[in-house]
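User: Some background: our group keeps a shared notebook of sequences we're curious about, and every so often someone picks one and asks for a predicted structure to add to the entry. Today it's my turn. The entry only has the sequence so far, pasted here. Could you supply the structure so I can complete it?
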Amino acid sequence: MSDLIKIYEKDVHPGLKEDQDIFWDMSRSARVVVVDRDGHVALLHVRHRCYYMLPGGRADSDEESYEQIARREIREEAGVDIEMITALGMSQEFRNKRSVQKISQCFVGRVIGEKGPTKFTEKEVHRGFELLWVPAAHALDLFVSSKPEDYTGPFTVKRDSHFLQKAVDLGLLD
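Assistant: Of course. Here's the predicted structure to add to the notebook entry:
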């Protein structure tokens, strides 16, 4: 079921010149389409940057697996534990301006237990992160209405909307 989506600079910032001679720093992360027992999906609203994203984040160490990253980040950003349903796919982003090649594994997970508080980092609080639980169809509308006001937002919206749409198409959020 897993697939790979590649996102290049030209896909999200068509006006920026692509540099072919980049030494790429590698970044690993995990994202999760989290669904609760009411059929709502967890989304992060990045209020100060005007877009939405799936919860998740970067590896803390080279030894941390994608699934470990996902579980840790979901506890922090969505305040829940999850049962992993499936690995949905991977993305590879080439962020020329930052010389970063970002590899992300996306999963689908169901909430187990009760919802707790979020634990956003200082940087996330500064960007205006807010956790929302919304119906999947509405979540897709929010991605479409996103108007990112920073460099990384368009990459994030393209990646996360692709994975959310795939989860919907596969009937994994019922």
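Suggested note for the entry: DSSP finds five helices and eight strands in the chain. The CA atoms of residues 56 and 74 lie 6 Å apart.
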